[in-house]
Amino acid sequence: MLLGALCATAVASAVPACYTAGGGTAPPTNAFYFPVGLAVSEGGRVLYAVNSDFDLQWSGGTLQSYDLQRIRADALALEAYSITGDDQGIALPACESADAGADSGQAGAGDGGVASVDRLHFSYGKPPPKCKQLAPPGNTALGQGCAAPPVDSTYYVEDSKTVGAFATDLQIRNDRLFFPVRGTATLTWADVGNDDGVSCGAPFSLKCRPDSTGRCTTQAGSDPNSQDNTRHVTMPGEPFGMALTQDGTAVAITHQTDTKTSLLTSGIETGMFQSPTMQFVLDGLPQGGNGIAYVPHDYDALRVPDPNDPTKLKPGACDDPLQVSRPNADCVRPAFLETSRNVAELDLLRYYSDDNSVLPNGAPGAGLGETLQRPFLQRERAYTLTANSLGTDQRGIAIDPTPRYACKARLGKNPSPADLKACGQIAARVFFASRSPPSLVVGEIGELATDGSYDSDALVVTGNVSVDAGPSRVYVAPIIDSEGKFELRVFVVCFDSGAVFIYDPDDLATEGSNAVPTKVIYTGNGTGPFAMAFDPMPLECAAIADPKSDAWSGSTSDYPWKMAQCPSPAMSPLQRYRFGYIANFTQSFVQMVDLDDSSPFAPYTFEQIVFTLGKPTLPKGQ
Amino acid sequence: MTKHWLGIGGVAAGVAAVVIGVAVAVASCSQTPTNVPVRSLQQSQKSDVVCLGTLQEDGGALIVPQIPLAQEQCAPVPANVTGSTLPNHLYSVVTQTTRGEVAVIDLTAGQVIDEDKSTPGINFIPVGGSPTDVAVTPDGYMTFVATAEEDKPAIYAIPNSRLLGDYGGQPPLKLTDLQACLLAQVPQALAIATRPDGKTVLLVMVRGSDTLGTRAGIVAIDPAPLTQAWPDGGGPPPPDAAAAERAADAAPPLPPGTLTSCPVIGGVALSNTLPASWTPGPAWPDGVPYADAGAATEPTAATSCGVGAPADAGVADSGGAGDAGEGGLPLSFAQLGSPHPASMALRDDVHLLYVADEAIPVIHVIDVSDPTAPHEQAPLLATSVLNPARRVIVGPMALSPTTSDFKRYLYAVDTRDKSLMVFDVSDPAASPRVPLQRPHPELNPFAAPDRLGFSAPIASLAFVEHDWPLPSQSDAEAPNPIHQYSGLLCNPNPNVHPDAGAFLDLGAFYRVDQAALIQPSGARETFPNRLRGVFAFVTLSNGSVVVIDVDDWDAPCRRPDPMAAGDVKDLAGVTYTVDAGIGQTGLLAIPQPPPGATPDAGQFEPYHAPLTYNSNISESPAVTLEPFFPVSAPHRMRANTLLMNDPVSGEHIPYLSSAPALFDVNGAPQGTSAGMAATRPLMLPTLLPPGWIDYSYLQTPIEPNPAARTWVSPDMAFGSCAYPASLLPQTGTPSVRLSFDDPSAHIDQDWTVTYEGVLPTVSGVVGDMVLDDQDGQTMTMYATGARLCEAGVEDWQMGQARVAQLARNLPAVGLPVQPPDRAQWTADYIEITDDLLDPSDPYWSLPASDAGASEAGAGADAGNRLPVVNDCWEGDLANATADARYNFCLNTFGTAANADTYLSRDFPILEANDDYLRVGRFGWVDRDTMGNAVAEASTNRVVVAASDTNKTFLHEAQCCFHHQAGFKVRAGGEWLTVGSSVGMLNHEQSDPRPDGAFSRPTLGWRS
User: Fold this and answer.
1) DSSP class of B349
2) Nearest Cβ partner of B768 from A359, A410, A422?
3) Are A71 and A47 in contact (CB under 8 A)?
4) At CA A441, angle to CA A438 and CA A446, rounded to 5?
5) Any chain B CB within 8 A of the CB of A194?
């Protein structure tokens, strides 16, 4: 009922004047308030959150950074306390004590230490005695009883900035945070420092250009005359879903009450950060765009062996996979898949950088530029959905290319182009949430066409599985299995039912409607989970699975399909931790889910809620 | 701990969960309320059934414990009977995958069993986590459940005498009450086979693991140690000596509540080998058995008075069995991987187990004649005729009952194709090992030749054999329901029902005029729902259930009448002549042979009935009078309405809602008769061959008497060898001939026929405009990835070929070859749909040379962008102002809003490829013979290929549209037929070029 009322308010006030900041009380800087987006820094040391100010109680929303090192350390201490009853704490490795340096890039005092449950700032005192001693098996698991009581989240806040009301998402790329803001119909951004995952410094500072009230003004979409906005377009109202291209150079944004999708350049292309710029508005899409995801084309799939030397690739044939926004004719231009709330259809939107015109090698004019270098989107395919009985309300979408990587990892060192091509032509898995009926729909994109050629855009929906009411967002992220290897999981956030369904994508791919969730996490009555984030791990590495394997530690020259080295256990804490973070919209708190099945506490903690950041608070009037 | 009920919203009877909120207020932890959901069925998956004697025969008192019975003793609940009062109840045991439980559903009473009434909610029997399959022993005494719980894959045994928990008057089963055993590998499916000595064996399909070094396969487990803890739990003793013997010599029982290793007594690992090649399979029966038996001519493509059949309308061109099997096709796949079983099906007639594989395109065939020593035979191959290189992934399977022609079919889901494969497994040794093919695939261009396709992914499938049995018609036996007859073919042969009181074959009781005798409220309109025979039920992920005809015993009675080629007589000697409207309706509606004089000669054969009408019992139709034949054919989706224009169920045949009309570009109707016909095209229906008849023109579709029927236009309805005068231009009515060959080829949709219509598959594509090396004699529109050939674009070469074919065929039917210069303008053309850039756009000021661009800094920024060549501006435009350039372009090309009428936006396609279109220019004679100016029109232009005369125009086009434009493609000089559901039909064929660079110029044809 609350949500309906708030939605009604939002729709009724869908005029710019209602969203402007105006006066009013500044939002709390150190608390969650209708959080709608989470992101973890690339090195895994900072948790960023964007709050939406959904009931317009304040003068705006907030963007916050949290010290994830301390959060994890305390979560582990609480796990130990709850399971063993030992409140003396656990030893922590370097950089993970409470005093680890921030932003400085220096180790500071973070040279190890002990995290003790004594220092935890529980909202209501220490955990009660009955939450100790969970062993032996059969006792209440963490998160299902009272072992994850609320912890004062203000203790972990490092920085906060005021932003527009009604943000909808948060993503990070190349040390830049992006978040659509419905209140201002903009893509707002903030820059953060680099988090290399090795040094102890952490990029807590949120850098955005403030106005006189301290509100971030770094936003694109509202000014038709901004630099490089050559079409002089403004962003339509109600931006919602967001996706970046694989190289991060462009951003596509859906609009939930319109037939349009916006395209912006992200400004991170050259390495010298420029401002994101509004570029194009694609019209004619189904009403109510919602989820959107980048289609991960695999350029090995498109490469052509050199006819003169089959062991090598044909020169110039899709030879620079990093330049995905500027593929040559043998490659495939970047694309997005978009869902709609009102039409049973997925749409493939092709991104044209309009830069270095794509002409076949040897063709007249090949290599010449277009006369106006202005990116645009084009709706190139529409896939009618028949998998669900009604199927007119699709939400979040995620695409998983890891089957290709896993295949390549099995090839060993110096694979042949033909083998890489065969692996690259394995379909990527597509998962999207549908509310009619509540389900996760499963499909594949990219497959051999009927004539034997490879069609990178062919979408096949293979089935669905039912979930609880109100599925909204879908994520693909790895867990650590009991042997210490990575396995991928699909997380379906069900807002209305307060649940997160976890599926093994292998089960979904092979068993279709017969697949069973590996776990269903219930976040609490009426809590409304909305967004998730995960400790970082490149999907290529997750697909390799075994950190002890040669493919994991091998160089990118031996394994040319790897974009970068996988994190070394000795150097990086990246793979030491495997937590998921759930932003709870309705009651304004964040929960941590332990996704490490190899830890000694795993029987009690794996896929359980083990830590609660912030006090669950009902909205006013509830 | 105090539990507060907030309310129960309902109990779902399906897989959907009903989440009920329960607030758990823990005194010390009240700040972290946790959700304890109470549900009924949730994530139900596999099921089996068991019959239990539940109530006493006299008075209905509960029997404790319940008595397992043979399944046959649980008869279906008759209509108007309260099932809950019957003594024997059929229960379904259903896995609850999310909660690791087995639910019990009373199918006889229609309710979900609550195993523990003392606990809120509907409670079930706990087993291990992630139950994957459930199986009930043939004697009904035990239920086994396979579970895939991490680290604890196991088999659990449930005594069926305790299946009902405290609902059945016994304590609810706890997990620790159950005997169970631990498996070494994760089980996915479970079946119960019988050994030669009568003992049973559990066959468990297990997954392999590359990591753990285990292989997928079938494991045989002795169930005896899992069944010996009972009857001390309350069950009765085994029912027979064999069972007692089994109990006596079995291994020691496994203690309940423990998990020790399962007693494995055999097994086989699945093979990952494939044959090197395969040959497409034969066709399945086409539903015309009298033709197959040689009693009539096999159907061939229709010919029309000397005019050859369309190129792809013949059987030989269909990709069917006839031309696909030569030499065999290779069967090799990269990265095949290890076997990964998906599902299995155990036969009941021979000792074979079929195991579908997701990793290898096969269905493993396991010989389980000795289930303790299973071994693999040659597999069935999951192949695809349309794309032999595709690795088919097999999902669920089902085995059919034996059909009336003694066939058994295995249906297997092709999980990536939303389709089913049909295998004939009647003879395990000799039956083909690849999917059967659709007979006469050329009759349905929408269907794959070796698949049954569906609109949504397939969730599950099952076969059903069902009948509406015939009560005995003998006075001595009636009304004893025991004396019923089942499995009878509907027989419309008039010899078996010569008069109202005579039924010389029991199949005559299933005629249309006897429908009410067989089925309450039965009528002709209920035939589609009168399921008699063997049918497959396919459940789609969207909730739809599709019924497939496998062996429809009413098939002989769903047909037109007569099915004859010439005059026919009925039993009363009345003659019905061809002139009254007798003819073949479709390619498969082959005239039936006349009945012979004796039973051996077909006197009473259901398919020896060229005329079923009998004037002795007038107005009493034997058949449905549907114009199609066969309506019900093996492996065809079943329609839920009669396929005819029926006054009750509606019009369910293809028909024209109105005559085709011609409109101009502004939508104004154009006359095509009389004097107008000379210059305006008239849509003519295809000529119908002699001996054929078109039921579209039948005004009285349910009139059983052929002589009493009326036809709206007999000259169009009856076949002939020349176009009748009423059809010719200037006098005729435009029309379209509709096919009655295959009902499945028709989709309920509207067709639009448009002269030079827009290809719906290409609209909105953006191309880069590049002039050729000859300074722009031609221009190429590059649209990499647009797959233009697949979209149906045809170039000038293809257009010329079409015109040549037309010139050959038109004279044969007496039509003139006009206009003579058609080949000069029959080619698809692109129409640029973009607007010009805004006049204020800086583009219009860009210099026309590299040097200028560098100096101006426009087009080559400080980054890594390449320089712009914009030298397409020529003459005065090279140095003109922005306004002058814009105005010139506006005058030349107009706006996007007027694109359809601005003919300068049209560019004929000289060469079509997947990624680009090479275009030229349209030319026309701009002066008439009197010297008057003539404007370009779509009716007076011709294609101008590479030519110096093209340069100026193509330069202007390139510059006016800033080297890049969106476009659509029109069918130049041709009619384009587009369906509202299927869009445009296009038969694309590959023609790879030697260098492999740009392949597939179009060679196909369009509707």
Assistant:
1) S
2) A359
3) yes
4) 165
5) no
pLDDT in tens, A7-62: 333 333 333 333 444 467 889 888 999 999 999 998 888 999 999 988 888 889 99
**H or E element: which one contains B47?**
strand B44-55
Residue B316: per-residue pLDDT: 31
Closest C-alpha to B605, from B613, B617, B614, B593: B593
Euclidean distance between CA atoms B992 and B1007, whole angstroms: 24
For the stretch B445-467, what's the b/e string if a residue is b when 16 or more beta carbons lie within 10 angstroms of its beta carbon? bebbbbbbebebbbbbbebebeb
- Would you state the structure tokens that stand for residue A240, as one six-digit string? 């919602």
Q: In whole angstroms, give the CA distance from residue A330 to residue A319.
A: 9
Half-sphere exposure of B272 (CA within 13 A, CB side): 15
Q: Is the Cβ pair A350, B785 closer than 8 Å?
A: yes
Each residue of B112-160: pLDDT tens digit? Answer: 999 998 888 899 999 988 899 999 998 899 999 999 887 789 999 999 9
Angstroms from B698 CA to nearest CA on chain A: 37
* Contact between A299 and A322 (Cβ < 8 Å): no
Disruptive mutation site among A265, A277, A514, A606 for chain B (greatest number of B CBs within 10 Å): A514
The CA distances from residue B802 to B240, B310, B798, in Å, are: 78, 12, 6
Lowest mean pLDDT of A201-205, A578-582, B546-550, B807-811, name the range. Answer: B807-811
Low-confidence ranges of chain B (pLDDT < 50): 1-36, 231-242, 293-326, 851-867, 989-1007
Q: What is the mean pLDDT of chain B?
A: 82
pLDDT given at position B546: 97
- Is B97's CB within 8 Å of A524's CB? no
**A515-547 burial: b if 16+ Cβ within 10 Å, else e:** bbbbbbbbbbbbbbbbbbbbbbbbbbbbbbbeb
Buried b (16+ CB within 10 A) or exposed e, B891-914: eebbeeeebbebbbbbbbbbbbbb
* CB proximity A91 to B under 8 Å: no
CB A233 within 8 A of CB A281: yes
Contact A359 B15 (CB under 8 A): no
- Nearest of B952, B935, B922 to residue B830 by alpha carbon: B922
Q: Are B584 and B692 in contact (CB under 8 A)?
A: yes
Q: Whose CA is closest to B359, among A426, A156, A344?
A: A426
pTM of the model: 0.83
Q: Cα–Cα distance between B604 and A74 in angstroms, integer?
A: 88
Helix, strand or coil, per DSSP, at residue B252: coil
Nearest by Cα to B507 from B524, B529, B492 = B492
Distance of CA A570 to the CA centre of its chain: 26
How buried is residue B83: exposed, middle or buried, by Cβ count under 10 Å (0-12/13-18/19+)? middle
Angle at B842 between CA B837 and CA B848, to 5 degrees: 95
For residue A507, report the phi and psi dihedrals to the nearest 5 degrees: -65, -40
Task: Return the closest-CA partner of residue A188 out of A282, A57, A51, A56.
Answer: A51
Q: Do A516 and B869 touch (CB under 8 A)?
A: no
Contact B768 A124 (CB under 8 A): no
Contacts of B939 (CB under 8 A, 6+ apart): none
Q: Quick one: chain B helix, strand, coil %, rounded to 5?
A: 15, 25, 55
Contact indicator for B695, B585 with CB cutoff of 8 Å: yes
What tokens were used for A409? Answer: 């990892």
Question: How far apart, in whole angstroms, are the C-alpha atoms of residue A347 and residue A153?
Answer: 40
CB A386 within 8 A of CB B542: yes
Q: Which two tokens stand for residue B982?
A: 């299927």
Looking at the predicted complex, does its ipTM rise above 0.85?
Answer: no
pLDDT digits (tens, 9 = 90+) for B530-585: 999 999 999 999 989 999 999 999 999 999 999 998 899 999 999 999 888 899 99
